[in-house]
Amino acid sequence: MEKLIEWAGYYHDLGFKVTHINPLLNDPKKKKIYKAPTNNRHLLKTQNQTKDDVLNLDWKNSSGIGTVLGCNNLRAIDVDFESKYKLSGETRKIDIRPLVLEMLESLSLPENYSWVVITPSGGAHVIFHSPPHMFRVAKNPVSDYGENKTKAIKPSLKILNHYPKLGHFELRWDLHLVLPPSIDKDGIKYEFWNELPKDDPLSITSQDLKKFFIDFCFDEDGYKKGYNLRLNEYHLSHNFLDYTPVFL
């Protein structure tokens, strides 16, 4: 597939709620213009989107394509580097694949799993279906719709020793996700790391997700920094629901 409109039909056929990204129509004061959807993703949460609706979007003037997460329990884990390394371009030289392979094993996904996307900064999105996570998430104070922030979990010290430039794992359980073959402001593409997926993303269970947290984010001495969290025994014994008292 060469044209975005062809990709749009492909994603719609897989059951995705499809968005298009036109940086010229996105407000830079409110949005990351190469990541934010130009059509109204809030309406897509509750409205049916036909294939004609998708194909009639302005693909000729778009730089990318995305989807509304949360619909049909579509989710993603975003592997993100520290910003200072992304800004310097260092992260584009790092091979994230060994870490992703460890993640796939922990999440009970196959090592050749198709729904892994390498991002322009060198990070990765692992896309799947999953029930809602159980973390308490703060409201985003700048959201016009009263939406929650994305939850970010810090890697454990053990993982950081192996991958010292990691920033956090983002639990992209709702809001919006950019998909291949979108480009960033420098013209670098989001790309599937394996062949083009032929089937819908697989599903993981709450237990798979809990195992991932323990494998990658658990430390005896957990801490909270901003909305980033490193897990400890308190969270495991409280079903991840309320971590506030441990930090008082």
Descriptive overview:
This protein has 248 residues and is an alpha+beta fold. The protein has one domain: Prim-pol fold, CATH 3.30.2250. It is 23% helix and 19% strand. The chain has eight helices and eleven strands. The protein has helices at residues 4-13, 41-44, 51-55, 83-88, 97-106, 157-162, 206-217, 233-237, and strands at residues 18-21, 64-68, 74-81, 116-118, 124-129, 151-153, 166-172, 176-179, 191-192, 224-225, 228-229. Strands 9-4-5-3-7-6-11-10 form an eight-stranded mixed beta sheet. The radius of gyration is 18 Å and the shape is globular. Residues 243-248 have low confidence and may be disordered.
List the helices and strands and how they pair.
Layout lengths: L3 H10 L4 E4 L19 H4 L6 H5 L8 E5 L5 E8 L1 H6 L8 H10 L9 E3 L5 E6 L21 E3 L3 H6 L3 E7 L3 E4 L11 E2 L13 H12 L6 E2 L2 E2 L3 H5 L11
Parallel strand pairs: 6-11
Antiparallel strand pairs: 1-2, 2-8, 3-5, 3-7, 4-5, 4-9, 6-7, 10-11
> What pattern of helices and strands is seen along the backbone?
HEHHEEHHEEEHEEEHEEH
Let me know the largest β-sheet.
8 strands, mixed
Shape: globular
User: Structural class of the helices, strands and pairings?
Assistant: alpha+beta
**The CATH architecture:** 2-Layer Sandwich
Rg, Å, rounded: 18 Å
Low-confidence stretches: 243-248
Question: Could you estimate the helical fraction of the residues in percent?
Answer: 10-25%
Kindly report the CATH topology.
Answer: Prim-pol fold
Mean pLDDT: 90
